[in-house]
């Protein structure tokens, strides 16, 4: 079986051999179209590579740790990253490499090429999911083979995994062919839909200056023409708001460049070019007897067709599923730099100062009207900042993702999460807070009288001035450890004392692996970045990734401060209503509290109020013995489980217990150093729990389905943070 | 919780229905002994039924120590087994079939294995029921869930 050939020589190549894109190009060639020089590496080469390294089952094991529909977007990304690492770490067998290399050199010795994915599953249905797999532009001949491997890996990209079922993606049957096409020096490029996907009867032609990349990525707004298929007349022409940037390939790097001044006022296509495109595309639609989506480019007045595929609409895709939105948050380096600037210089400082302003106000001195206004205002601000968090902070988390992908491509480490070791050099608010708790605990340990006072639990607070001073300092910096717990100040302090007492039982954490190792990795990374061709340098990328990693934890702490102030106003309002014996006031919503205080409402309606959230216990015949999650922090921990469902449960947490929780809220990270291990239902390597567990070298497993239901406080649990497996011995 | 129960029951029934043979482990003294056996199960999952000759080693073992373990799995002897195969370990107690249940269990067994009618009819063959204490279902390579089909706390006590 041939593994590489010129597409024009293989007129009978099948979709199983050359994939969907390959077959589309085969048909364009057969229809006599002008297509750049194209070589196909068949899916047999992909198969050979997988079989040589026994990769098929390794991929199978990674993919099947959890049911795809139960995965969060971060877990899908983790899975794709792990699969890609398997491909990157395996070398192409020498016999195959020699065969490909000889052919590619004879075909493209002095040219730059596009290395494109062409999956064998890419049939009519999969055509709807454009952009699932990777393509690389402007690749010199000696780097084609390295990119072939990346294209193979992209069969298992995060986007492809998300639609795994719809695509019928399977380890046993899915394969990837690769199309290598000579780059055309594009003056103008675009896409033609021979039938308007939005429903009009016209043909839609989109065009941009330069390469198509910016248009496909959505970075550049195109000129768009609606052309009458019958007479070729332009029925509508939508110009972009501005025509300033184009995608170009210069010195081996694809990037955005300014469009020269005189061209900016001119649409990329002339009337005669539009007409020519319309005729070619219409002829193809008739030839293939179905509406097509055709990618084209023009170089030196010559029209080339780059690919053609049937237009189809998205079917059977859950529109409520938010994961595609998350996975679409691939951000460019430049965009991430802008986000960082906004977050560091605007969003976080503004949150901080607003929370501080709120804290200045003594709510007890406000009259009812003023308190009602404060509740409304703070609730509104809270939701404003929550929106801001989604708009800026969540997308910025992708700085880590960008760094991780580049790190793995350059260094192909055995552990695909090795890059995380480089990220934790900045101080995080949560670890700084915990450091203060350690300091308070060591004061207690050094002072037996103080320790005795704390251990007495007689409801009085220690009087030691040094201790009280440090305690006040902690609380003024970070607020009460349990925001939302409705207890009086004295009671709250006693709870904090209990936490400090638990801290006296543990040793301050030493970071596992040490600073020297991460410094060594950093130097290795920076050296490789110097040799690589990215439009930014290694130091800047690392700095950006560190900010992204750190802000991912900190942003919640800032948001928590605003939430705390909003909750304080609502609680103050509730207390007033309770004192006036308003029935149901304890559970009234912020809106209701404000309305009653402002005199707009007299009473609460009598619907049942939400009470305790503790689930009802019912007898089950099912118990979990061993559950597989994702290994998120290395190490093995053994101890008694403490299932934390609400803040109240945290108060009883004892040093050495295993923390079992749906999701570690950054406001509860003070408990982490006390835990022997962490089990989190929420999945992902970069979620707060995982970040902080790694900081303290505490074994952690994330993405454990139903962890808080299947494990009961008191069960003996062993956490294997290397393999992501936890074993339960029922109490 | 009810959801776990019904999902787990369905998963166990699926594995049991997909196979004809189980590995039966008996013991003699301290020595375990594994044998391949045709089996059938009751829909309530509380009982499995197997048959053997009375002169066999396993039958002698069972007469002395009725505690048994069985293994049923969906492997197909290919690489993909590691991520896709499921294994069901059954822990239970073997016992004599009572006269009032003989006809029902015999039909259950023959419905599943009609080709074994001669074997079962032989005076030297005995039908044995296994009262299941619990099942352990292993999937996704290392995921292990336990299911107790009966209400009794411990059939071994």
Question: If you had to describe this structure to a student in words, what would you say it looks like?
Answer:
Chain A folds into five domains: 179 residues, ATP-grasp fold, A domain (Dna Ligase, domain 1), CATH 3.30.1490; 123 residues, ATP-grasp fold, B domain (D-amino Acid Aminotransferase, Chain A, domain 1, 2-Layer Sandwich); 136 residues; 75 residues, no CATH class; 104 residues, Glucose Oxidase, domain 1. In chain A, 45% of the residues lie in helices and 17% in strands. Chain A is built from 25 helices and 21 strands. In chain A, α14 runs antiparallel to α21, α14 runs antiparallel to α22 and α15 packs antiparallel against α21. The longest helix of chain A has 42 residues. With 157 residues, chain B is α+β, with helices and mostly antiparallel strands. Chain B has one domain: Electron Transport, Fmn-binding Protein, Chain A (Pnp Oxidase, Chain A), CATH 2.30.110.10. Helix content of chain B is 31%, strand content 40%. Chain B has a six-stranded antiparallel β-barrel with strand order 1-2-3-6-5-4. The mean pLDDT of chain B is 92. Classes of the chains: A alpha+beta (731), B alpha+beta (157). At the A-B interface, α3 and β14 of A face α1, α3 and β7 of B.
Q: Which two chains share the most extensive interface?
A: A-B, 26 and 21 residues
What value does the average pLDDT of chain A take? 85
CATH A-level architecture of chain B = Roll
Total strand segments of chain A: 21
Major sheet strand order of chain B: 1-2-3-6-5-4
Instruction: Estimate the strand proportion of chain B.
Output: 35-45%
- Determine the structural class of chain B based on helices, strands and strand pairing: alpha+beta
How much of the sequence lies in strands of chain A comes to 15-25%
Characterize the biggest β-sheet of chain B.
Answer: 6 strands, antiparallel, barrel
Which CATH C-level class of chain B is it? Mainly Beta
H and E string of chain B: HEEEHEHEHHEE
- What is the number of helices of chain A? 25
The N- and C-terminal alpha carbons of chain A lie at a distance of: 60 Å
Q: Provide the CATH topology of chain B.
A: Pnp Oxidase, Chain A
Largest sheet: spatial strand order of chain A: 14-21-20-16-17-18-19-15
């Amino acid at each position: 079986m041939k593994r590489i050939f010129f597409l024009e020589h293989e007129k009978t190549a099948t979709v199983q051999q050359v994939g969907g894109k390959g077959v589309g190009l085969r048909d364009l060639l057969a229809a006599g179209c002008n297509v750049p020089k194209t070589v196909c590496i068949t899916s047999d080469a992909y198969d050979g590579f997988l079989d040589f390294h026994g990769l098929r089952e390794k991929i199978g094991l990674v993919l099947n740790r959890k049911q795809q529909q139960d995965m969060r977007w971060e877990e899908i990304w983790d899975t794709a990253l792990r699969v890609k690492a398997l491909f990157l770490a395996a070398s192409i067998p020498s016999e195959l490499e020699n065969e490909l290399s000889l052919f590619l050199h004879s075909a493209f010795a002095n040219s730059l090429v596009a290395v494109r994915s062409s999956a064998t599953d890419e049939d009519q249905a999969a055509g709807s999911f454009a952009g699932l797999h990777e393509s690389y532009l402007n690749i010199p001949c000696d780097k084609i083979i390295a990119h072939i491997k990346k294209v193979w890996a992209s069969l298992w990209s995060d986007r492809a995994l998300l639609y795994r079922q719809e695509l019928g993606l399977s380890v046993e049957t899915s394969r990837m062919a690769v199309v290598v096409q000579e780059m055309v020096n594009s003056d103008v490029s675009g896409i033609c839909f021979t039938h308007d996907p939005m429903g009009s009867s016209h043909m839609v032609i989109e065009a941009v200056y330069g390469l198509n990349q910016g248009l496909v990525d959505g970075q550049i707004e195109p000129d768009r023409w609606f052309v009458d298929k019958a007479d070729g007349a332009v029925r509508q022409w939508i110009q972009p708001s501005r025509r300033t940037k184009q995608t170009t390939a210069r010195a081996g790097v694809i990037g955005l460049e300014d469009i020269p001044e005189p061209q900016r006022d001119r649409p990329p296509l002339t009337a005669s070019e539009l007409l020519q495109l319309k005729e070619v595309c219409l002829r193809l639609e008739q030839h293939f007897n179905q509406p097509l989506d055709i990618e084209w480019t023009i170089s030196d007045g010559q029209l080339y067709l780059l690919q053609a595929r049937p237009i189809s609409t998205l079917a059977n895709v859950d529109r409520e599923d938010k994961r595609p939105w998350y996975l679409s948050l691939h951000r460019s380096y430049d965009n991430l730099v802008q986000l960082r600037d906004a977050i560091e210089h605007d969003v976080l400082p503004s949150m901080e100062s607003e929370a501080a302003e709120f804290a200045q106000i003594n709510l007890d001195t406000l009259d009812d009207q003023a308190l009602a206004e404060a509740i409304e205002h703070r609730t509104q601000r809270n939701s404003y900042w929550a929106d801001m968090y989604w708009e800026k902070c969540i997308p910025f988390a992708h700085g880590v993702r960008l760094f991780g992908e580049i790190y793995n491509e350059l260094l192909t480490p055995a552990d695909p999460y090795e890059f995380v070791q480089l990220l934790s050099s900045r101080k995080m608010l949560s670890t700084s807070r915990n450091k203060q708790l350690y300091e308070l605990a060591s004061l207690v340990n050094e002072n037996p009288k103080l320790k005795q006072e704390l251990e007495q639990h007689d409801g009085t607070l220690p009087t030691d001035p040094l201790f009280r001073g440090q305690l006040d300092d902690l609380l003024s910096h970070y607020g009460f450890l349990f925001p939302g717990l409705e207890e009086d100040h004295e009671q709250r302090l006693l709870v904090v004392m209990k936490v400090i007492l638990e801290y006296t039982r543990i040793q301050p954490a030493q970071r596992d692996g040490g600073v020297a190792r991460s410094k060594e990795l950093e130097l290795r990374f920076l050296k490789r970045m110097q040799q690589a061709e990215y439009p930014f340098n290694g130091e800047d990328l690392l700095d950006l990734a560190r900010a992204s990693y750190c802000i991912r934890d900190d942003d919640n702490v800032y948001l928590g401060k605003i939430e705390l102030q909003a909750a304080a106003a609502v609680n103050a309002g509730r207390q007033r209503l309770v004192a006036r014996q308003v029935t149901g006031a304890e559970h009234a919503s912020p809106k209701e509290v404000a309305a009653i205080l402002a005199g707009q409402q007299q009473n609460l309606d009598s619907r049942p109020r939400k009470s305790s959230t503790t689930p009802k216990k019912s007898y089950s015949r099912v118990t979990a013995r061993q559950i597989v999650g994702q290994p998120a922090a290395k190490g093995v921990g053994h101890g008694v489980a403490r299932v934390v469902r609400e803040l109240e449960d945290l108060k009883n947490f004892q040093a050495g217990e295993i923390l079992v929780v749906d999701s570690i809220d950054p406001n509860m990270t003070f408990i982490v150093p006390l835990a022997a291990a962490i089990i989190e239902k929420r999945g992902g390597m970069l979620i707060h729990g995982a970040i902080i567990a790694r900081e303290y070298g505490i074994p952690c497993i994330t993405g454990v389905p139903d962890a808080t239901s299947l494990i009961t406080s008191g069960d003996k649990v062993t956490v294997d943070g290397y393999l992501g497996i936890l074993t339960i011995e029922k109490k | 919780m009810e959801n776990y129960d019904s999902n787990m029951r369905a998963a166990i029934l699926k594995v049991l229905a997909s196979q004809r043979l189980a590995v039966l482990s008996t013991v003699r003294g301290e020595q375990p002994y594994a044998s391949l056996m045709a089996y059938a199960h009751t829909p309530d999952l509380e009982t499995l039924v197997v048959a053997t000759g009375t002169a066999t080693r396993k039958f002698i073992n069972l007469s002395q120590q009725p505690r048994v373990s069985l293994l049923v799995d969906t492997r197909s002897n290919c690489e993909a087994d590691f991520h896709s195969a499921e294994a069901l370990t059954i822990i239970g107690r073997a016992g004599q079939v009572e006269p009032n249940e003989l006809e029902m269990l015999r039909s259950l067994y023959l419905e599943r294995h009609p080709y074994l009618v001669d074997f079962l009819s032989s005076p030297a063959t005995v039908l044995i029921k296994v009262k299941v204490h619990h099942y352990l279902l292993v999937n996704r390579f290392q995921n292990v869930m336990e299911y107790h089909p009966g209400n009794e706390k411990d059939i071994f006590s």
